[in-house]
Amino acid sequence: MSVWSDMPMGPADPILGLTDAFNKDTDPRKVSLGVGAYRGDNGKPVVLDSVKKAEQLVLDKAMNHEYAGIAGVPEFTKLSLAFAYGKDSSALKENRVAAVQTLSGTGACRVAGELFARFRGEGSAIYVPNPTWGNHIPIFKNAGLEVKKYRYYDPNTVGLDFEGLLSDVQVADDESVFLLHACAHNPTGVDPTRDQWAELSKLMKAKKHIPFFDCAYQGFASGNAEKDAWAIRRFVDDGHSVALAQSFAKNFGLYGERIGALSVVCNDPDEAARVSSQLKIVIRPMYSNPPVYGARLVTEILSDDALSLEWSGECKAMADRIISMRTSLQGHLEALKSTRSWDHITSQIGMFCFTGLTREEVLKIRKDSHIYFTEDGRISMAGITSSNVEYVAQSIFAVTG
Ligand code: PLP
């Protein structure tokens, strides 16, 4: 008998729990399409050459292991901001962006949630798209916010419900926080067009809403990091006080290094200094200060033109491999004379494909074919390779016809 004897078993995480189930499966045909982590065409994790070179540079510098400050490694945050907002961003030139290094994108979301709960009020609303990345909901709830959903995805068109989105933005109380996926929306792979972003920005401005961009896939959507930052930059140009969560997990392949940033665009440097001070007050009792290794790697890459260029090419190659797997998966399903339309596989962008498969179909594919993906029908395209794509198509076809 211990104090923990009555502790109930908690449910497995809907995404990470899948990896455990996959690892336990002994069937040789098994395929893991759950977690959004890039794999090469050999199905193995990839370390980018630009990252390997950065690792060598860091090693050569024989740096010490002192603590970073609460806000992290300053060179990293500076480069990270230029990466998202653009080297010529007037907000950066005017020194009015508050920023801290965070524990990847998840940590950035959590710190932002805490900041909103403190300064917008405990229990105040954050609007997230329906659907959204599953972890957003507990992150913001645990930070003390009320999570509300705005319309985003229309299953009938397998596209954006733009009218629904605008109408929900319109009816929300003024000055509400709206979480927006900067690009490559997870899980749907459906993004607004540039015209739609511009219209949304205008309406959010009129409503004085606070746009909070979650940018976990910069470079992964189009293969071009500058293009993928378009919506963020447009909102800043339109005068919004944007908040931004950045992750370098997917685009730099630095998943386990937990490297990201949170920033808030302010009116002037004085306001930015005050926001910065409060971010540090949130962070200090939470984890004190972030790890330095990932920050050093990203700093080496983004501060060196040749390495940055090499990284861009590698990022584009990852995006291109995913695009070619989309074409291949759709092609195999069509060749099987599937009765369903699979056009959305190639029209969606980013790491995921929101297949439209029902929960029952997902579970049947898992049981019959040992292919693991989330119950909402989302598959990580990054796990599809030229060796398993035909098997995945056949397995989908076997339950959908
Ligand atoms: N935001 C979105 C939309 C994501 O899809 C993810 C990862 O899947 C994250 C944030 C956070 O990822 P990480 O904490 O690994 O940077």
Note down, in words, how this protein is organized.
The chain is an alpha/beta fold. The chain has two domains: 14-47 and 318-398, Aspartate Aminotransferase, domain 1; 67-303, Type I PLP-dependent aspartate aminotransferase-like (Major domain) (Aspartate Aminotransferase, domain 2). Helices cover 46% and strands 14% of the residues. It has 16 helices and 13 strands. It has helices at 16-24, 49-60, 74-85, 90-93, 104-119, 136-142, 162-171, 194-206, 225-228, 230-237, 269-287, 293-302, 305-335, 343-347, 359-369, 389-400, and strands spanning 31-32, 97-103, 125-130, 146-151, 153-154, 159-160, 177-181, 210-215, 243-247, 259-265, 352-354, 371-372, 378-380. The strands form four sheets. A seven-stranded mixed sheet has the order 2-10-9-8-7-3-4, sandwiched between helices. A two-stranded parallel sheet has the order 1-12. Strands 5-6 form a two-stranded antiparallel sheet. Helix 6 (136-142) links the parallel strand 3 (125-130) and strand 4. The longest helix is centred in the C-terminal third of the chain and has 31 residues, at 305-335. It is globular and about 60 Å long. The termini are far apart. The mean pLDDT is 96. It binds pyridoxal-5'-phosphate. Pyridoxal-5'-phosphate binds at residues 36, 104-106, 133, 181, 186, 214, 216, 247, 249, 255, 260.
Strand count:
13
Percent in strands: 5-15%
Shape field = globular
- What is the terminal separation in angstroms? 54 Å
Q: Strand order, biggest sheet?
A: 2-10-9-8-7-3-4
The first-level CATH class name of the largest domain: Alpha Beta
Bound molecule types: pyridoxal-5'-phosphate
- CATH superfamily membership of the largest domain, which one? Type I PLP-dependent aspartate aminotransferase-like (Major domain)
Family: Belongs to the class-I pyridoxal-phosphate-dependent aminotransferase family.
Protein name: Aspartate aminotransferase
EC number: 2.6.1.1
Keywords: Aminotransferase, Pyridoxal phosphate, Transferase
